């Protein structure tokens, strides 16, 4: 995912420095060329050999170390860097970066770098909230640095509050957002629906389906990493929401339809992947459900609103609408009919009888169907399917 990308990690003197070893390792596993620069104070918390072992690159500390190839090392690395993250960032180094002070390898290199720069402050909560530190962070923002908000919690000094460096997985997501894919959806607004809906029968029982939301969440995550502004309308699922995505949680089909209607007109791309329950108990019938001789009475059902049909009949100029179709037979014929009937641009169809496709899996086997084409894709991860969907949309 990050093959060919050069990631520079700047590590300063904070107790959280040891956590960056996990970040460096994760980046290497994703194919990145990881280079670590440490301040001398940082070496009191973690040994440079740790980073050299994990990255297979020399860990830079001393600006005047002569054990380099014949080039100006801080300039050479600054030119190669695709992204520069300072984490943990101490108040001291934040102040230096904000005011252009370059008196060590880290501050010298970042001053010469033109790539995206991320800063993750980590310090005592009283230091972090100090107006001087906040002014310095605002100065960095003015110069194009992105500041990662610290987490709140119990700090090493014994205080509780803001100032804790986020977990390495969170920092990794910031890097992936910038480097994982080309930002070919920059400036686009994408609306995605995901998961099942639940239609209450009574306070205990409900009508639903086996959808887990994995495909919809993958679509939202990939759209975000490709640069889009993403809104995810999600039914009840057991999945961690993707970062940098606006998530609107709903339960019933009516709630999902309302959430979609409120947002659809402002979106460039809409992908309805949610497996909305087709039926709900009729209001009158639901009130009359009583047990007879130990058995539940029959339930009168009514259809839920067809969200995809609504979208197709209320589309705005330039909008691309994509729906999903899950079939057990006649997949192409049924999906083409759905494409025309719903007045949408693409149907992503999969056959529930195909191994590796359908609900609950980490893979999918789909066919991308448009008015003039049908592209059958091999079994692949749901992230790869999501990328294939956007490749098709962008290519049209």
List keywords for this structure.
Rossmann fold; 23 strands; five-stranded parallel β-sheet; 396 residues; 2 domains; alpha/beta; 14 helices
Textual characterization of the structure:
The chain has 396 residues and is an alpha/beta fold. The protein folds into two domains: 6-179, Flavin prenyltransferase-like (Rossmann fold), CATH 3.40.50; 189-394, 3-Layer(aba) Sandwich (Rossmann fold). 33% of the residues lie in helices and 24% in strands. The chain contains 14 helices and 23 strands. The protein has helices at residues 20-29, 48-55, 73-80, 91-98, 105-112, 125-129, 131-142, 168-179, 214-225, 253-264, 283-287, 307-313, 331-342, 382-394, and strands at residues 6-11, 33-38, 83-89, 116-121, 146-147, 151-154, 160-164, 189-194, 199-200, 206-207, 229-234, 246-249, 269-272, 279-281, 291-292, 295-296, 301-303, 320-327, 346-351, 363-364, 367-370, 373-376, 380-381. The chain has an eight-stranded mixed beta sheet with strand order 12-11-8-13-18-19-21-22, sandwiched between helices. The chain has a five-stranded parallel beta sheet with strand order 2-1-3-4-5, with helices on both faces. Helix 3 packs across helix 5 and helix 4 (91-98) crosses helix 7 (131-142).
